[in-house]
Design goal:
Elements: H1 16-35, E1 39-40, E2 46-48, E3 66-68, E4 74-77, H2 81-92, E5 100-109, E6 121-130, H3 135-152, E7 158-163, H4 164-171, H5 178-189, H6 193-202, H7 207-215, E8 220-221, H8 223-229, H9 236-255, E9 261-264, E10 277-282, E11 291-295, E12 309-315, H10 316-325, E13 336-341, H11 346-358, E14 362-367
Parallel strand pairs: 1-5, 7-9, 13-14
Antiparallel strand pairs: 2-4, 3-4, 5-6, 6-12, 7-10, 8-9, 10-11, 11-12
Helix pairs in contact: 1-3, 3-9, 4-9, 5-6, 6-7, 8-9
Length: 368
Amino acid sequence: MMQLLHTPEGVRDTYGEESRQKELLRTKIAHCMHTYGFQDIQTPSFEFFDIFNKERGTVPSKDMYKFFDRDGNTLVLRPDMTPSIARCAAKYFREEDKPIRLSYCGNTYINNNSYQGRLKETTQIGAELFSDADVLADADLIAMTVDCLKASGLKEFQIEVGNADFFKGLVEETSLTEDEQEELRVLIKNKNIFGAQDLLCKLNISGDLQELFMSLPEMFGSMETIRKMKQKTTNERALKALERMEQLYDLLTAYGCGQYVSFDLGMLSKYKYYTGIIFRAITYGIGEAVASGGRYNQLVGQFGFDTPAIGMSITLDYLMSALERQNLLSAEKNEVISVPYTKATRKEAVLKACELRKEGKSVTLLEQ
């Protein structure tokens, strides 16, 4: 019987003041997204497995919660919001002649190995911008991320910016297989310099290119880092990626966000569908990024609507934890007024409670 009172590992109940604070946070962030012209959309909690299969570049199949419907179709609890929103854009908005701005809030489910209390179900609030390939769209999403985090009450955070195309450009100069590329990508993503060196030596990568790959985990900091890297490669795709980052920084400075931005050429997302600018927001007091995003110009085309796209998402659970540990959660309390009554005064108490509720107050009736 006691087991019935507990939740499975990796999921938890949210109630009381914590639940109220989470909803308050969601409302603030949603309002900020609306000021940038985003319109709300909701997608199902579970979809066909093919929406998230390997070709889409989302999380590995082993990390998904899978089950079957009565017709034998494989379904999954969504592990990632972006493919779902991309599917909707392809289905409902392909005739639009202007950029499409969609925002959402929903739970995602990843069946990963539990460690250090990591959640398997999290609430994400985010936005996706379709049919706009300009660097200004990149800047708009990152600036909005900054404004959303500021609206939440977070004060000290950093937006780390990379570019998935830089690594892809360097890989073009090698003859690595897809599996070898993935192994190298994970090592660089985890900043495992020694592991990357061992792999590159084993694969006989040329000295100059090996040195360039080896330097990626240490290539982070200011715009000067980007300018230095431009002198170290002649790869056209990699150079375009660096130039895009320079243009992005100029625009973010115009937005007034320059002080929140740093660059990391060794930053590589777990999502393979990213094709350009990628970013994540970090703060102290928590080991996970509170927000992340990037450009994915090829994903929507897999649903029959060939259009560029960029998105961002904030994980409310991680943001809540950061705000709590930094003592930044709203001190505003939801005061509840109790109206006492007896059997003889029930009607009077009801009328009093109705009057107070019309004034926007929280009221309960309390029997004496």
